[in-house]
Amino acid sequence: MFPWDIMTKSSGLGTFGGVYTPSILTILGVIMYLRFGWVVGNVGLLGTLAIVTLATSITFLTALSVSAIATDRVVRVGGAYYMISRSLGLETGGAVGIPLYFAQALSVALYTLGFAESITQTFPDLNQVYIALITTIGVAILAITSANIAIRAQYFIMAAIALSLISFLLGKPIEPTQIELWTNKGEPFWAVFAVFFPAVTGIMAGVNMSGDLREPTKAIPIGTLAAVGTGYVIYMGLPVILALRADASTLREYPLIMEQMALWGPAILFGVWGATLSSAIGSILGAPRVLQALARDGVLPQWMGFLGQGSGPTDEPKIGTAVTLVVAIAAVCIGDLNLIAPVLTMFFLTTYLVLNISAAIEGFLDSPSFRPTFRIHWLFSLLGAVGCLIVMFLINPTATTVAAIIVLAIYLWLQQRELITTWGDVRRGLWMNLLRVGLLQVGHSEDTKNWRPHILVLSGIPRKRWPLVELADALTHNRGLVTIASILPPGSRDMGQQTDLELTLRDYIEKRGVQALVRIITADNPFAGAEQLVETYGLGAIVPNTILLGDSEEPSRREQYCQMIQAIYHAKRSLIIFRENPERGFGKRQRLDLWWGGMQANGSLMLLLGYLLRSQLDWRNAEIYLKLVVGDPSAAQAAQINLTQMIEDLRIRAIPKVLVSDGRSFEEILHESSAQADLVFLGIAKPRDNFDFKAYYETLQQRVAGLPTTLLVLAAPDFPFAEVLTEGW
């Protein structure tokens, strides 16, 4: 037994067999055998050492991030997918996990085709596709039989690689040479770096075996970092030997130059075959486990749930392995992976990028729940993420863009499905931290440039007065906050029941496509409760600046209703009273009638509300009619010119319409002109001392009776809504 495995449990794979071996075998791969001489020949010895150091640094930083996450929580089946989904959420984990699965599944074909190509170069009479198919089926049988058997097979492969390295070390120069420290005769530095970088991207091979490890929180950090360190030592030594044994042109010309330098040439071939087979085995072991985790978390469609099944006491994903075999065989039959290979590399790097971001966010927030035993500063993880992103664009900008589009599309698809998880993730902590910073930065006084309607909707039970919620959502259109408030009689709910009811109501409105907060309070009567909400609801400087409520037709409650309106106005909140025409609702959402009384106060706010409403999808084709009544025809032409000029200056699409009273009352003109409107905007007089507001409101209700759905608007005092419109004049 290896020393690292002594302190672990009796079942499952240990650090050496489960993490170190698959990781180091993936790192010491075909790039080392077939491209290392080419790298030295193109950029010289010092350039090669710089490339190795830079590339390994990015992998090392990612390994640190992986180690931090792995020592904070139990890492189960799925490896990198499991870590990301439990940190950044199921949508992000799935968006990375699905491409990661296909990348690993197709990588099986990539490696077996490479193995077959090296075989046919040695034995030209053999068929490359048949060799690749047989090899693919062979490694799949190994994986289906047992992960332990596959790991034992990797020990023999490791022995073959070690033999090849020893044979190379004991070899001889093939020609007299002068060491070139730097050379500009070959490919550009970053082009060579892009070719070499996949040689150090093998750390996920061990992480993907997390479900089969005895103690993943110990095995992953030790095994991964040890593999990265071992690979770095070997990669720093090989360029020196290559530079001493052949000149730059020879190194560039012969891909298998190591075979010519080795003490025993066939050992290098064994190493190449071992490297390709070990990478294929690592992929055939890792891909089904990612697929199993995706199915168990419900990321895949429900009918694919059978892919989450495991077999035997070790829960091996034999069904997933069989599916992965089918995918790999299909790719082998195509026979040419040159077009998709760059995209596959991007998916692996995308995984590293997101893992680094996960660790950086967790470390930056320093949540009490994040307590890794292997702790690193979040700046290291951030540096690793930046490095991954830069390398992706250096390797292939087009493939990076394609990979990003695919990941984003999967993320949006999963987000639309509204998957429910039983675990928390870092996103809430991130938003809470941003919210704290934002609240402390926002001033207590609103400014005209950044004004948005933050609406408190006094709707009662939303399903009974849904048009109120619908209107608030349309007015804000993701530009402001909406709070749906209900006021219950005292004793109807205790605090726990109120919280449960708030969650129920929030789920209800979210399922209907509305993003809003929910607030429930108890009060002796709804009017006192409304005043209480207006007075106390909010957080710091973020309070509702606009109150939306329905009209009250009940005469016995009109006194209290009018007192509430006055209290809201004196609290310096804007008020919108919604009078629905139940027979017409919002009509065809094609016409908005705004009865104009000037830019000050109500007029400016009504025009802003009309503009905001029309920016919502359902109202996008609506026309705003700005209506003004004048006493005689002589004033009509000047009024028309003024309205037209004002609309042009305000940059708001509206149709000015000047109406001559010609002896008619405003009420007659209102009903005649707005009979076909879909929504009518009217201003309300300001409550003031020695003003019978109740009598005024009763008159107003009689005036608007029978109109289409109407909004009665009362602008908050002392706020210059006109400046919001004229900003930039």
UniProtKB/TrEMBL annotation:
Membrane-spanning ranges: 12-34, 46-71, 92-116, 128-148, 189-207, 219-244, 264-287, 319-340, 346-365, 377-395
Residue ranges of every copy of the Amino acid permease/ SLC12A domain listed in the record: 19-456
What's the short name of a Pfam family annotated to this entry?
AA_permease
This protein's UniProt keywords: Membrane, Transmembrane, Transmembrane helix
Location within or outside the cell:
Membrane
Q: Which residues form the SLC12A transporter C-terminal domain?
A: 466-580
| Xref: InterPro entries | AA-permease/SLC12A_dom (IPR004841), SLC12_C (IPR018491), SLC12A_fam (IPR004842)
Q: How does it sit in the membrane?
A: Multi-pass membrane protein
Origin superkingdom: Bacteria
> What PANTHER family does the database record attribute to this sequence?
GH08340P (PTHR11827:SF72), SOLUTE CARRIER FAMILY 12, CATION COTRANSPORTERS (PTHR11827)
Q: What is this protein called?
A: Na-K-Cl cotransporter
The organism's taxonomy opens as: Bacteria, Bacillati, Cyanobacteriota, Cyanophyceae, Spirulinales
